[in-house]
Amino acid sequence: MPEIEALRYDPDPCSIARTLDLVGEKWSLLVLREVFSGVRRFDDIRRRTGAPRQVLSARLGTLVSAGLLRRDPYREPGQRTRYEYRLTGAGMDLYPVLVSLLRWGDRYLVPPTGGPSLELTHRDCGEPVDLVLRCRAGHELTSAREVLPRPGPGARLLDPDDPRAVPAARLTATPAGSAASAGR
Amino acid sequence: MPEIEALRYDPDPCSIARTLDLVGEKWSLLVLREVFSGVRRFDDIRRRTGAPRQVLSARLGTLVSAGLLRRDPYREPGQRTRYEYRLTGAGMDLYPVLVSLLRWGDRYLVPPTGGPSLELTHRDCGEPVDLVLRCRAGHELTSAREVLPRPGPGARLLDPDDPRAVPAARLTATPAGSAASAGR
Known about the structure:
The structure is a homodimer.
Chain A: H1 15-23, H2 26-36, H3 42-49, H4 53-65, E1 69-74, E2 82-87, H5 89-92, H6 95-108, E3 118-122, E4 129-135, E5 140-141, E6 147-151, H7 179-183
Antiparallel strand pairs in A: 1-2, 4-5
Helix pairs in contact in A: 2-3
C-alpha cells in the first residue's frame, strides 16, 4: 500500500500514537477486556488478568482520568466503601480495538485443534459478529491494499528537507540488481 | 455488557493477550503504521516514528520472527546490502487494529478545530472507509452492548473454587444502599 502523498506530511500528531499513549500497554487493554465482560471490581479484575496490584491500580487510575472508565462506590455489609469500574461511552467505543486484536489472535495464534476460547455473537439473533472494512458507498474491502490513506484536514505538510519526509523513490520498487528483484 | 456465562471460563489462553504479547507495545504498532504507509527502510521508519535505534531494531526483529514482516535485501550503489521491511499476509491482516486505534483517537483525542491528520479512503471509489461491526445475518451493530460474548470451542471451564471464576452476583447491579445505586 505505498502512498507517496501521505508521506510528505508530518506523522505527528497521529491518532494511533495518541490512542496508544492512553491504552497501548498490555494491562490496560486486558483490564478493558474484563470490564467489557462485566467484571467490575478491583480484586476480580486482578485475578482475571494476573496484573500486579500496583500496576493495576495505576492503569485503572489512568483509564478513569482519561474518561474511559468511571468509578462507582459500593459497600458490602460491614466493610468500607469500595469502587466498581464501569465503561463510559468513550470506553465502550474502544470495543473495535479489542475485537480486532481478538480476531487476529484467533486466526494466527490459536492452535487449530483447540479453536478460539471466545465467540462474539449478536445479542439479538445469536449470529457470529465480524469486523468489516466498508466504504461509505457501500463497498466492502477485503484487504488493507484497497485502502488509500490521504491527508486529512489536520495534516501538516513537511518541509522537503525534513528528515521525516520520505522521498518517493524509496517507497516504490526495490532497486534493480538487488537479490530481491532478481529472486522474486 | 455483563456476561455471566463467559466468566465461568478460564480467561487464558486469550487471543487478545496473545496478540498483545506480539504487537502490544507502542513502537511495534507505530512501525506497522509506517510500513502500511509504504515506508520500508530502517532509517526512514526510525525518523518517522522517533523510535530509538536499538528499540526499533528489536521490534523489527520480533515482527520478522513472528511472520508479520519480511526482510528483502537491497543495495544502493557502492554500499553494503541492506534490508527493506514489507508486510506479509499476516501483517496485512493486522490492519483493523490500526484502523480501530486511529478512529478512536480521531474521535476522542483530536481537537475538533484541527481535524484528523489522516483519512482512509477506498482506492476504487474514493469514499471514506469505516470499520463496522456486523453479524453474519447482516445486522449492523451500533454498540458493544449488542454483542454477547460466548465460550468458544477452546474455552476451558473453571473450577467454581478457582479465584478467577467471578461469582455472578458481582457482575450485576451495584448493591442496594450504596451511593451509586442511590444517586444514579
